[in-house]
Amino acid sequence: MEAPPSEDFAAFVREGGARLRRAFIAAYGPEVGAEATSDALAYGWEHWDRVSGMKNPAGYLYRVGQSKARRYRRRPARLPEAEDRASPWVEPGLPDAMGELSERQRQAIVLCHGFGWTLVEAADLLGVGPSTVQRHIDRGMQKLRSRLGVDDG
Fold first, then answer.
1. I need a labelling partner for 36 at 20 to 30 A (CA). Which of 28, 46, 96, 106 fits?
2. What's the chain's Rg over C-alpha atoms?
3. pLDDT at residue number 1
4. Range of 20's domain?
């Protein structure tokens, strides 16, 4: 197999690598997310001649990382505990409440509300429509509000 052009792949990693990492961490937590990112990027490097010609290489590698993550997933994803001195303040029950959301709800909320992605950016990476991302956000936020006893009022 021929080695991929390192400059093209390096540019892809600079532009899309952080987005992939954030999406995987949102889905699977820090440890499994980091492993899934590494596996997806390694696959991308090995198959760059084919992957680089795709319409959405980041979306394709996201699917690769999802498949690879199955071997690492032993327990549900959980956000790290908030430190007492954390700034900004984080609701102490948030990590447990986030862990009760579906994978897609957690991803949509973390990507859009946590990382400030647009619905279109999240939808593009996740391979769904923006309205689907919004639906996951709406349902996930409703579950979080209910679990944490927050009134929309």
1. 96
2. 17
3. 47
4. 6-69
Q: What is the pTM of this model?
A: 0.59
Residue 101 has phi, psi (to 5 degrees) of -75, 160
| 137, 109 contact by CB (below 8 A) | yes
Q: What is the DSSP letter of 71?
A: T
* Residue among 28, 10, 115, 19 at smallest CA distance from 67: 28
Q: Quick: pLDDT tens for 40-85.
A: 999 999 999 999 899 999 999 999 998 888 777 655 555 555 555 5
**Does 57 lie in the same domain as 14?**
yes
CATH code of 110's domain: 1.10.10.10
| C-alpha to C-alpha distance for 32 and 82, rounded to whole angstroms | 19
Backbone φ and ψ for 33, nearest 5 degrees, come out as: -60, -40
Number of independent structural domains in the chain: 2
